[in-house]
Amino acid sequence: MTGARGWTLAAFCAVVAVLLGSCGGSSAPPSVQDSPTPTVSASTPAQPSSKPSTTPVRRPGESRARTLMPIVQHGPRDKPRIALTFDADLTTAMRRRLHSGQVKSYYNEALIQHLRDLRVPATLFLTGLWMEQYPDRTRELAADPLFELATHSYDHRAFTKRCYTLGTVPRAGMLTDVRRAVTILDELDPQATRWFRFPGGCYDGTALHELAPAAVTAVGLDVPGADGFAKSSESIVGQVLQNARNGSIVVLHMHGGDNAPLTDEAIPSIVKSLRLRGYELVTVTELMAG
Ligand SMILES: [Zn+2]
């Protein structure tokens, strides 16, 4: 699983990310509705239940310890391996639509079935609200050796002030939010990883600082699958195939419903095409372990 090498890379990338200020979030994107997990994304390093010894990163030149949440953007570029990841968003607004019957389900079962049929390992990033809505599904996914589970915040609010149309987690509540999601996941999955993905892919130095004690590692933006509110499965397939390369972490969504309605239609073509090109599909933990 993610060994010392992975964490070293994580630490390195974290420093780079902070210095360059690169992150999906700060610049405000298109107008998407509640659960934008749209075209931007980030992901987290998975550390199995053997609680990862996350070593928070210290910015170079800082004499006083200002630790930051580690973040990885992609895996090694010298090996033909790619990690497909799927976020399960659920905001309070989405939950209202679900409970009112406006949306039938925020679990794209067809997508998960495709992954199982095609034997595709995947890393699933779940919001706390989603796990509370689907605890049995979460346990079922946790028990499937194809998948590893990670967190995606509690209720899919953003960790920066401007991030699509997402609500914002106040600075004072950031750590509590992430820990809440981690606690829920740990109760449902004894093998839970410590990878984390920022909602909307939005983060900044403040968020990385506030979340350092959470002992999770964020996975930054690499290949957004563009399946959020997609109008055709072909566009999703094209977006992934045009941008995937060695070490890529592809971000797609598993909540389906009105927010990501075509991901299941796109995934068979994506998987088959990537494999035809010689890529091995692995989890984020496997990717980062080298
Ligand atoms: Zn999301």
Automatic annotation (TrEMBL):
One of its GO terms (molecular function) is hydrolase activity, acting on carbon-nitrogen (but not peptide) bonds. Residues 28-56 have a biased composition (Polar residues). Residues 26-63 are annotated as: Disordered. Residues 1-28 form the signal peptide. The keyword Heme does not apply. It holds the Pfam family Polysacc_deac_1. InterPro entries: Glyco_hydro/deAcase_b/a-brl, NODB_dom, Polysacc_deacetylase_ArnD. Keywords: Signal. GO terms for biological process: carbohydrate metabolic process. SUPFAM superfamilies: Glycoside hydrolase/deacetylase. Residues 80-282 form the NodB homology domain. This is Polysaccharide deacetylase.
